[in-house]
Design brief:
Chorismate Mutase Domain, subunit A; Aminopeptidase
Amino acid sequence: MELEEVRTEIDRVNEELLRLFEKRMALCGQVAAYKQAHHMEVFVPAREVSILEKVQKQSIPAFAEYNLRFFNTLLSLSREYQQKLLENGNDKPGLPAEIHTPRLHLIQLDESAAPAVYSITSDPEIMRETTLQVHQNEEDAVSLIRAMTKQGCFAYAVFDPEQKFIGICGTSPNRLDPFCLNLHLLIAKSAFQNGCGSELLELMVDAAQKFTPAKLLCIQVPEQSTSIRHILKNRGFETDSVRNTDAAFQTYRISL
């Protein structure tokens, strides 16, 4: 194999390592949240010894020494990251506070966004495209925000390039499958028409891949939601093989 071919292969492996490393650190963030909730120490020597023993046992002899040094570094970085999260009190470890693209600006959702959220959730035309009921008051919007930002969830307020609020998005754990996340998209119809809906969906899939251990992402949409069903299919989401008991809704899934 020529040198450039070898370097191309190394670049490919580097990209794979980077994604796996980021996913590992995101999982460490979840470990930090658990340790914080249960008043546990970051450094657990028995756990690290167990990991290193497995590494040594599974290593090719020629690489055993380097594998141990590599994993020692990983464990050190993990401790450092967990300690930083605990010191900062970050309840959404691993997730960026903001996400910017040329057409979208996402900010982690909190209750201060309730008036803007209510402007969306009180619109029957918009809510017809979701599985939610039309909100009758701002308190309904506050309750929704609390549900979307509780432990194990992540959610963002979504703005267009002119900083106009256009909706919210997020994920929550699936009660039946620990490796599946439920996806939630609640945005103005204009966002689908100008392509923002497709870009937002792409961002959410990317965030789930990078910052969570989930293997599946699923979303339930009404049968009449032609706009969102179109972008889901274009992104590779497939309809669930098991039909919902409620014929008015359809579940779409994608592997991460």
